[in-house]
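USER: If only I could read backbone structure tokens as easily as an amino acid sequence. It would mean a lot if you studied the pair and described how this chain folds. Here is the record:
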Amino acid sequence: MRTKLVSLAAALAILGVASPAILRSAEKSKQEKIVKDGSVVSLQYSLSEEDGKLIESNKGKDPLKYTHGSKQIVPGLEKELTGMKVGGEKRVKVKPEDAYGFVDSKAFQEVPKEQIPANGLKVGATLAAKGPHGQEIPVRVHEIKEKTVVLDLNHPMAGKTLLFDIKILNIQPSVTSSSPQPAKPAAPAKPAQTPQPK
């Protein structure tokens, strides 16, 4: 009987010593499952204009995956996602200054009409131009004049207030083997080559 009591006391002592460690481990696990700088986040989203018109959605498709804090998504959205947990849902309203900026009047360029393909000669047509580093930049036909075409090099969502409906699907801890390079916003650039219709 005495041996059983000693064994029980020893077991309780071991549990008492181990319990804080187990609790700390569980708490750490919970902390890793929140969106914070360095977290690799997978999410489902729908993006709409302020009037409710749907722009795009990945519902029923692959989730959007990004590294939080590395400027891979618009700043206003990234800020609002900080601290969210897996399964969390949120509607986020992002103003132009925290998204794609305001429409820049200097980002309009006039080019000779012959540089534009015939099927791109209509207001609102989206063309692709090559930027200074070879990247493809979408440009829109803003105005057609007698001998020239005015191209709008602003981001298509510049000046718009955006509504994101977000659901966090997964959060992975940061990968420390290499530090992610921040995404650089594409600067308005002059078309280096003849723009092509998309």
Remarks:
- The domain at 34-101+155-191 is CATH 3.10.50.40 (Chitinase A; domain 3).
- The chain has three domains: 1-32, 34-101+155-191, 106-152.
- The first helix runs from residue 2 to 32.
